[in-house]
């Protein structure tokens, strides 16, 4: 038992770690209001939430005046509640995701504390909160942070039930599945249950799977949470949601690439490395000891979950980076376990290379400007205005500090500090620069449209965030005389005579003459 100076040192280390964790959790809320909504996803979710208020209909979602059957209702309800409490702004629209990301990290702490010890639990929460994939998705006004928090709750509780057999863990797992099903549908059930089946089969215990899926009270919990809305939307709105959501937006994503989101068979390898930054180096340690982890109950479970999701999303025709996050919750806990024994200075190299790349990002974008589509060429025209001296100073300092930490040799501490620097760099430096560069003109045009006394339509462009800033339903259709039109400048030649309200870069807001 530690005594005297050793005990004081242990207390200081834990206090320092708790401070890191609190700073990591706070990073999800830093600068939420300083970045315009990104199109398409953030804009579409937020505009659909706005239309719930405009229509007075909180049962189903609409976008540009037509039904939007992409996702179930829970994330929209949470956005609506946040907007009602804090106003219709970027902070309120992103707040549910930030809170879900905090819950995700705390679930990792709770799980690791039961499975390992308090120190590993603190590391698990910090690693989860600061991994780049979580940092990004926890700041996005979409359904994905909420889904991943529900998945984390499910896979952690499910494993604890498999290992310890406590009934409340089983009920907690099914509660997570129900919330996930109400957030994004079948993926919230399929991934945990398939993971459990493969895990049990690998141990020759597949019959235990029946106990997982046949518990009556567990099913009653699931039905009570998830089923009422699905029944209500079908009874009131007809079968459109069920048909479109389950067939097009679930089966259809595997059958064909939707909205141009395709990729090769190795698409998710670099995604895995980026999503786990700055802890990517620990993946190599994990890979070298995979047999050891396979012999461990939780190690096997985590590897099966990651492998299952990796294979499923790789075979899906529609590929988006955040799909891989569905399989990372358990992996991040394993990486936190590896962090305890981190010794090699090279584990900080991914962070150093990331900071260096971000420092030169403005130059890389400028070099690629001529190869971009005309619309993006226009948006990149004033890149130096957004990536100023403060941007360069931050990432130069972060790279220098990482190099010093490599020389210092306290790798575990260094990884956590660089992770914190990366989280705040993304929140307060990178995303504001990129957001205002790409979305600034859309926001400005939308705020001007808010004060117009004529109908506003969208034609020749699809930036749903414009509707949010305009504070109204903006239909996508051919405009009529006297209406205002949000469009791109090349499309102006196809319009009848108009008066210019706003033009910046390739974004235009005009009013057609009567």
Sheet with the most strands?
5 strands, mixed
Tell me the strand order in the biggest sheet: 4-3-5-7-6
Low-confidence stretches: none
Count of all domains = 3
> How would you classify the helix and strand content by structural class?
mainly alpha
Average residue pLDDT: 91
Gap between N and C termini, in Å?
A: 85 Å
* Number of β-strand runs: 7
State which percent range the strand residues make up: 5-15%
Q: Choose one word for the global shape.
A: globular
Helix count? Answer: 24
What share of residues is helical?
Answer: 55-70%
Rg, Cα atoms, Å: 24 Å
Task: Quickly describe the structure.
With 514 residues, the protein is mainly alpha-helical.
Report on this structure.
This protein is mainly alpha-helical and 514 residues long. The chain has 3 domains: 4-30 and 69-341, no CATH class; 346-439, no CATH class; 448-512, no CATH class. Helix content is 67%, strand content 5%. The strands form 2 sheets. Strands 4-3-5-7-6 form a 5-stranded mixed beta sheet, covered by helices on one side. A two-stranded antiparallel sheet has the order 1-2. Strand 1 and strand 2 form a beta hairpin. 45% of the residues are buried. The mean pLDDT is 91.
Describe this protein with a few key phrases.
514 residues, five-stranded mixed sheet, mainly alpha, 5% strand, two-stranded antiparallel ribbon
């Amino acid at each position: 038992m530690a005594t005297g100076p050793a005990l004081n040192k242990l207390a200081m280390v834990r206090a320092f770690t708790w401070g890191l964790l609190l700073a990591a959790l706070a990073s999800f809320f830093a600068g939420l209001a300083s970045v315009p909504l990104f199109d398409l996803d953030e804009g579409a979710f937020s505009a659909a939430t706005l239309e719930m208020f405009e229509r007075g209909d909180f049962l189903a979602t609409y976008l540009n005046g037509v039904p939007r059957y992409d996702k179930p209702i829970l994330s929209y309800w949470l956005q609506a509640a946040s907007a009602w409490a804090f106003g219709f702004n970027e902070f309120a629209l992103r707040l549910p995701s930030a809170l879900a990301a905090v819950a995700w990290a705390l679930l990792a702490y709770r799980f690791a504390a039961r499975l390992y010890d308090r120190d590993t639990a603190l590391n698990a929460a910090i690693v989860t909160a600061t991994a780049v994939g979580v940092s990004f998705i926890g700041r996005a006004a979409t359904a994905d942070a909420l889904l991943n928090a529900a998945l984390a709750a499910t896979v952690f509780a499910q494993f604890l039930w498999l290992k310890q057999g406590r009934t409340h863990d089983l009920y907690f797992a099914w509660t997570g599945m129900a919330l996930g099903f109400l957030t994004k549908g079948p993926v919230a059930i399929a991934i945990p249950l398939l993971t459990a089946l493969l895990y049990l089969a690998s141990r020759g215990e597949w019959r235990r799977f029946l106990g997982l899926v046949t518990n009556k009270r567990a099913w009653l919990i699931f039905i009570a949470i998830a089923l009422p809305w699905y029944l209500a939307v079908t009874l009131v709105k007809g079968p459109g949601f069920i048909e479109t959501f389950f067939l097009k937006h679930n089966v259809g994503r595997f059958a064909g690439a939707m909205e141009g989101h395709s990729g090769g068979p190795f698409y998710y390898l670099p995604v895995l490395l980026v999503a786990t930054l700055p802890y990517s180096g620990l993946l190599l340690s994990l890979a070298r000891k995979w047999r050891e982890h396979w012999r461990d109950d939780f190690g096997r479970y985590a590897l099966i979950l990651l492998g299952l999701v990796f294979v499923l999303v790789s075979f899906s025709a529609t590929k988006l980076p955040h799909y891989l996050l569905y399989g990372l919750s358990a992996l991040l806990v394993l990486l936190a376990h590896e962090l305890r024994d981190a010794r090699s200075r090279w584990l900080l190299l991914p962070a150093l290379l990331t900071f260096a790349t971000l420092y030169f990002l403005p130059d890389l974008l400028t070099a690629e400007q001529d190869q971009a589509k005309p619309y993006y060429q226009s948006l990149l025209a004033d890149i130096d205005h957004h990536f100023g001296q403060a941007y360069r100073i931050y990432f130069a300092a972060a790279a220098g500090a990482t190099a010093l930490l490599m020389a210092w040799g306290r790798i575990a501490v260094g990884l956590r500090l660089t992770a914190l620097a990366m989280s705040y760099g993304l929140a307060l430096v990178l995303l504001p620069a990129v957001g205002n560069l790409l979305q600034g003109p859309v926001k400005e045009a939308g705020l001007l449209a808010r004060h117009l006394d004529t109908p506003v339509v969208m034609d020749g462009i699809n930036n749903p965030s414009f509707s949010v800033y305009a504070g109204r339903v903006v239909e996508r259709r051919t405009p009529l005389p006297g209406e205002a039109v949000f469009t791109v400048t090349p499309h102006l030649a196809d319009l009848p005579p108009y008066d210019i309200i706003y033009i910046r870069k390739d974004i235009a807001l005009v009013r057609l003459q009567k």
